[in-house]
Amino acid sequence: MTSPEEAAFTAISAIAAGIATYLGAEKQARAIRKRMEEGTDAYFEEQRSYRAYPHLSSPRRLRAIGVSLVAGGVALLLLVWYKHS
Fold this sequence. Notes:
elongated; 4 helices
């Protein structure tokens, strides 16, 4: 059983990660494009995954992932608050 403190920490972590993902989507997408253009073996596995899943390098998708993380974190916080109030 998870304690309320652990669940709240997880929720706050998800919210923080979601905000960072949302705000850094453009920068992350530029970094991904740069690595894909380099074509060196140093990023072979990463490049292979981005070729297989191109939606993961889209700023729009990255922002959507960020929003989903924030929404999930808020939902978890509400559940913790409801259950323990």
